[in-house]
Specification:
Largest sheet: 8 strands, mixed
CATH architecture: 3-Layer(bba) Sandwich
Number of helices: 12
Strand content: 15-25%
Structural class: alpha/beta
Number of domains: 1
CATH superfamily: FAD/NAD(P)-binding domain
Shape: globular
Length: about 575
């Protein structure tokens, strides 16, 4: 029988970016907050001198243990879903700080178009641009309404950047200047400008200079070591929850962190949550933590799974189109182009996770889609992340996969290849969704989450368009050979593609088409706030973190209001 603990004001399920922001903001206001993190404690001292590509980038030291919990996958409902036995297409973080520890640091704001995508698309192109199977909808909030929260997140994180000439209006400049201009970023920008495009330096959480944030947390300047993606930063120069919001929460004296604590249920009476049930993963002991408010602040997949196993909200049914939880699961496409340079070499082994330049001329609705068979677009970027030897072996496509020719070309091209990559938006489709698997269970006897997903015609059409645009820029950059990425016919759970999963607990203005309102408050349980990219009704042409952070600050404001007045906040 579970041991019942004293009641607190707030419990967060997961302590990464969203859980850390909720904990910091509410603890500063005097509320008692307990943060439950199923992984272990981590800080910068855990990353000292561990630039070990094999341990972190190949063996996924910072990621979820799939032997204890994973997802099952199928392309369509008529197929049998099978478990993902090792991490592949996406990498779920685990441990204090979550995916906010191993991210690259790209920190964009979604475009104004994203938040009113249904209204703006129908106004310009009519109601039948995509067809009824694509479930696009407005977010229930506008860019202008969310802008102050973007600003708050960027100031907390010390983001280094410059204005996006095609982005939404800003109330303030970035708190720190953009990262270094390199030979590679300058070459991309010069080529883009010759083509009439609007390049700018990528907004980065790898800080260009030391910075003290409004909460008094010290962030350091990036060393350009090239160990960002899949690694923690020992310098405290890549902004993460571990060096910002979590220490801020702890300093208040109102926040208690419990690691190795895996939540298996949200307890509720059908109208409101009463607390959560969790297991100490080291001892196997079970505890009940009562709380006035429950913040569901885990990763997209785990937010969805926990609501489904807790029977909170109505599960989505693709056949009838009814229900919400699990609906509008989205991913991203990754078109682009590689350029092979015969007579030039670049210092591609140096860099930082978010050192780069980008153009938004083909993102959102920044270009006319009237004669195109898709909507939205993607950001096209060149990044100098610091390529590492195990996972990077660029050779022309006609190169043998082994032998002397393979070895010779591997050595020749190691620092003679540049890549333009795009993050293409993902539109929700009726047949792409999340639910509980009827067969497979996790280490605690709970059903695994089942992912039903495949690329759509929208994805494939957008992919080709953006890949061709990437190739045009690469040719202008002077590459001797340009290889354009080709779209996969079907999505597969391997190999790695991106960890930008979104949806399933989507936000909106109507309880019939959304799970949470624009404060991330559940329509079906007013004291439950589900915070994360699970709230995105679609996925845009950027990394989701900046928008996720803004929504987390919005949710924190809503939870503070709820603690005083109760009831629905909208």
């Amino acid at each position: 029988m579970a041991k019942k603990l004293p009641k607190v004001d707030v419990v967060t399920i997961g302590v990464g970016w969203t859980g850390g922001i909720i904990a910091a903001e509410l603890a500063k206001k005097g509320l008692k907050v307990v943060g439950l993190e199923r992984g272990k404690d981590r800080s910068t001292k855990d990353f000292l001198m561990v630039h070990d590509e094999y341990r972190y980038a190949i063996r996924y030291e910072l990621m979820q243990d799939t032997s204890r919990e994973t997802v099952t996958f199928r392309n369509e409902a008529k197929e049998r879903a099978l478990p993902m036995r090792q991490l592949g297409s996406f990498l779920l973080g685990e441990g204090l700080g979550g995916s906010g520890v191993h991210w690259n640091g790209h920190n964009f704001r979604f475009l104004p178009y994203d938040f009113e995508i249904k209204t703006m698309t129908e106004k310009k192109y009519g109601k039948n641009k995509l067809g009824a199977d694509y479930l696009i909808q407005d977010w229930g909030i506008t860019y202008d309404e969310l802008e102050p929260y973007f600003d708050t997140f960027e100031k907390m994180a010390g983001i280094s950047g410059e204005d996006n000439p095609l982005g939404g209006k800003r109330s303030n400049p970035y708190p720190t200047p953009p990262m270094k201009e390199t030979v590679i970023t300058k070459r991309f920008k010069d080529a883009a400008k010759k083509m009439g495009l609007h390049p700018y330096h990528l907004p980065s959480a790898n800080l260009s200079k030391s910075y003290k944030n409004p909460d008094g947390e010290q962030l350091n300047a990036c060393q350009y070591c090239g160990f960002c993606e899949r690694f923690g930063c020992e310098y405290g120069a890549k902004t993460s929850p571990n060096v910002t919001v979590i220490p801020t929460a702890q300093k208040t004296g109102n926040f208690e962190l419990r690691t190795h604590s895996n939540v298996t249920r949200i307890l509720h009476d059908g109208k409101k949550a009463t607390g959560v049930l969790y297991v100490d993963v080291l001892t196997g002991e079970e505890f009940e933590q009562p709380a006035d408010m429950v913040a569901v602040t885990s990763y997209v997949m785990n937010n969805n799974k926990l609501l489904l196993t807790s029977k909170l909200g109505k599960p989505y049914d693709p056949k009838s189109g009814t229900g919400i939880i699990g609906k509008n699961y989205c991913y991203q496409i990754l078109p682009g182009a590689a350029g092979f340079f015969e007579k030039e070499r670049f210092n591609t082994f140096m860099g930082a996770g978010a050192l780069g330049a980008t153009v938004d001329d083909y993102n959102g609705d920044n270009f006319d889609h009237s004669d195109l068979d898709f909507i939205h677009g993607g950001s096209l970027s060149i990044t100098q992340t610091g390529i590492r030897p195990i996972q990077n072996n660029p050779v022309p496509p006609d190169t043998p996969r082994w032998g002397k020719d393979f070895k010779d070309k591997s050595i020749h091209y190691f620092n003679r290849v540049l890549n333009i990559g795009a993050q293409g938006a993902s539109m929700p489709h009726r047949q792409n969704y999340l639910d509980l698997d009827p067969t497979y269970k996790d280490a605690y006897g709970e059903p695994l989450l089942r992912l039903t997903y495949d690329f759509t015609e929208q994805d494939k059409n957008l992919y080709k368009f953006i890949a061709d645009k990437s190739a045009e820029i690469m040719k202008e950059m002077g590459a001797d050979t340009v290889v354009t990425n080709k779209a996969a016919e079907k999505y597969n759970i391997v190999p790695y593609q991106t960890t930008h999963n979104t949806g399933g607990v989507i936000m909106g203005a109507d309880p019939n088409t959304s799970a949470v309102n624009n404060y991330m408050q559940m329509w079906d349980a007013e004291n439950v706030f589900v915070i994360g990219a699970s709230a995105f009704p679609h996925n845009g042409g950027y990394n989701p973190t900046g928008t996720l952070g803004a929504l987390a600050y919005r949710a924190a404001e809503g939870m503070a209001k709820y603690s005083k007045q109760g009831g629905s906040l909208v």
